[in-house]
TrEMBL record:
Superkingdom per UniProt: Bacteria
A Pfam family annotated for this UniProt entry: Cupin_1
InterPro entries, A to Z: Cupin_1, RmlC-like_jellyroll, RmlC_Cupin_sf
Gene3D superfamilies per UniProt: Jelly Rolls
Organism: Lysinibacillus boronitolerans JCM 21713 = 10a = NBRC 103108
SMART domains documented for this protein: Cupin_1
Protein name, entry field: Cupin
Domain Cupin type-1: 27-164
Amino acid sequence: MRKDVSISSNIDYSSPSAAFTFDVNKSTLFKKDSRNYINILGVEQLNTLENTSLLDIFLSKDNVIEPHYHQNAAELVYCIAGAATVSLLNPFTKKIQNYPIKPGQVANVPQGWWHYEEATEDDTHLLAIFDAPTPEVILGSDILKFTPANIMAHTYCLDEEQWKKTIAPIVPTTYIGPAKGCNRVKSATDQAPYKPTMPQQYMKPCPYPSPYRYPSMYPYGTYY
């Protein structure tokens, strides 16, 4: 005998304001230039979403989604075009794991894991899918820029003035690096060809804005 299945939801699907479609091309989170930008879809853009959201990411070769972590969501990175390497810090092994992906391939980033993505081809298109209506994020540039220099120097036995000088060029809420106009002097390590390690196996964060506005308009730890 068939039992009725009840669906638990806080969404009023009968409301005239309930939306079921949205043009993600009109919702830009961040734009570095015409080839490097991020579009967003979350509950702020489509109010019938529950436990899902996404970032539509476009990158040219050597551009990087800066190191960051999502404290409230896991992330599945799907490659649509081009190629990228998804790198994550495994908190259990204390090792960086690099996963090169091409069209049709994915890399999974568990919730709260430190990670970043680098395009290895021009015209790379990635789709980052989250199991939260609004993923939260902590960005590496914000951690470096907003943690007091005296705390960093005291904690890690650093020269405070040298630390201030080192992080001076960092732009808070970078999103896509390197920053435009970067004239960094490359080290010997940079000259060596990049050789990502092959994956052994696949290993579960501030809300995003709509549309994108200048990051300083938001409190630290939030995109809204």
